[in-house]
């Protein structure tokens, strides 16, 4: 059960500390506090952030990125348009830059993403392919990219956003040309190319139990029964205050665990209608804490990744006009109540 209301007061108080408005020993102690990653590791979990190549020139930004997190996801740099801009011509510049940065900071990488309907290069999306041709294109892309990053990434989002809201297959170029079997094929090709990478299916709006998450549950059960190499389900968790908290998140994580799968919260943000008020920021903080606690409560939920860490680089304002303030750090890289709430959630039930 979300403990949303209980947390509001605590989150506001913590916000004062985070904003540097509190003084005395408690405030001083904050300066040496463990990071989100430190605290997550005490639970055998990671705490990650997405990042994107254009932001890497911002040194105030990379300082926090390099210190607060132990898992990094490239927001765009490993997508098809970036990695195979012309057929058979591969470009690892953006992905490598992020992998190298992560390595320097002793961070692991959740690689994202191999098969998606969006952000495809024109040569791929503008042509009519036969099934045979497209299957070969897909196999080559997966094999080449996964081999390139073999041993350098922890996991792959192999297939991204394969289902519609009602649980039917999304009519993508992949589904329409190859049928639903493209998912098992993609997982097998990825596994052949890097047998150690953890292989995920990843989607949004599957945090709660419902038709879309049911579709993943059914598919995962079937793939496992057939021996297809699937390791986990990624729940993106792009949440919005106005739509309510997904109260069945923990139950949902648990039912995937029971199939023998890992789960991860892979792209978390909690947006709101602007302007942000103290009340909304406190509610947001409570949601961040609740979703983290849901993950900690389920043994095979391996970690949480936020979809970048600062409002300065969030995708939300460009995609949802009038909405934003979705991340735990604000546009000036100052921690918001959500940051303190995350620390508090991660401190619970740990032996210090
Ligand atoms: O963060 C990514 C943003 O920079 C891109 O413009 C956008 C294009 O669709 O993709 C964003 O990342 C998406 C992720 O790859 C898959 N899940 C939804 C994310 C937000 O759109």
Describe this structure as you would to a colleague:
Helix 11 links the parallel strand 5 and strand 6. Helix 1 packs across helix 15 and helix 13 packs parallel to helix 15. The protein has 15 helices and ten strands. It has an eight-stranded parallel barrel with strand order 1-2-3-4-5-6-8-9, surrounded by five helices. By secondary structure, it is an alpha/beta fold. About 3% of the residues have low confidence. The chain is 43% helix and 16% strand. The structure holds ligand 9MR. The site of ligand 9MR has 10 residues, from loops. Ligand 9MR binds next to loops.
Short summary of the structure?
The chain has 15 helices and ten strands.
Distance between the termini: 26 Å
Work out the radius of gyration.
Answer: 20 Å
**3D shape:** globular
Number of helices: 15
Provide the β-strand percentage band.
15-25%
Summarize the amount of helix as a percent range: 40-55%
Main structural class: alpha/beta
Mean pLDDT: 93
Task: Give the SSE string.
Answer: HHHEHEHHEHHEHHEHEEHEHEHEH
Extract low-pLDDT stretches.
15-24
Largest sheet: 8 strands, parallel, barrel
**How is the largest sheet built, in terms of strand order?**
1-2-3-4-5-6-8-9
Could you tell me the number of beta strands? Answer: 10
Bound molecules: ligand 9MR
């Amino acid at each position: 059960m979300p403990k949303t209301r209980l947390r509001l007061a605590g989150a506001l108080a913590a916000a004062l500390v985070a904003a540097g408005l509190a003084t005395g020993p408690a405030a001083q102690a904050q300066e040496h506090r463990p990071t989100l990653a430190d605290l997550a590791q005490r639970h055998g979990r990671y705490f990650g952030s997405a990042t994107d190549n254009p932001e890497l020139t911002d040194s105030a930004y990379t300082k926090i990125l390099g210190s607060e997190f132990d898992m990094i996801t490239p927001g765009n740099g490993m997508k098809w348009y970036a990695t195979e801009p012309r057929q058979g011509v591969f470009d690892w510049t953006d992905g490598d830059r992020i992998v190298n940065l992560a390595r320097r900071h002793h961070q692991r990488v959740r690689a994202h993403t191999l098969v998606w309907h969006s952000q495809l290069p024109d040569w791929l999306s503008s042509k009519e392919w036969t099934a045979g041709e497209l299957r070969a294109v897909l196999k080559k892309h997966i094999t080449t990219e996964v081999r390139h990053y073999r041993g350098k990434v922890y996991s792959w989002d192999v297939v991204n956003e394969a289902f519609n809201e009602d649980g039917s297959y999304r009519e993508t170029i992949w589904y329409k040309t190859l049928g639903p079997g493209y998912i098992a094929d993609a997982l097998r090709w990825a596994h052949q190319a890097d047998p150690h990478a953890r292989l995920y299916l990843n989607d949004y709006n599957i945090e709660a139990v419902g038709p879309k998450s049911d579709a993943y549950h059914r598919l995962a059960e079937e793939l496992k029964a057939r021996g297809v190499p699937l390791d986990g389900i990624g729940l993106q968790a792009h949440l919005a205050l106005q739509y309510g908290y997904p109260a069945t998140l923990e139950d949902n994580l648990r039912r995937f665990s029971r199939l023998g799968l890992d789960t991860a919260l892979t792209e978390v943000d909690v947006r709101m209608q602007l302007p942000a008020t103290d009340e909304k920021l406190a509610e947001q903080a409570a949601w961040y804490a609740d979703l983290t606690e849901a993950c900690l409560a389920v043994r095979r939920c391996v970690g949480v990744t936020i979809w970048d860490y600062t409002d300065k680089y969030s995708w939300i304002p460009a995609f949802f006009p009038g909405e934003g303030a979705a991340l735990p750090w604000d546009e000036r890289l100052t921690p918001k109540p959500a940051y303190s709430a995350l620390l508090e959630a991660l401190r619970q039930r740990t032996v210090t």
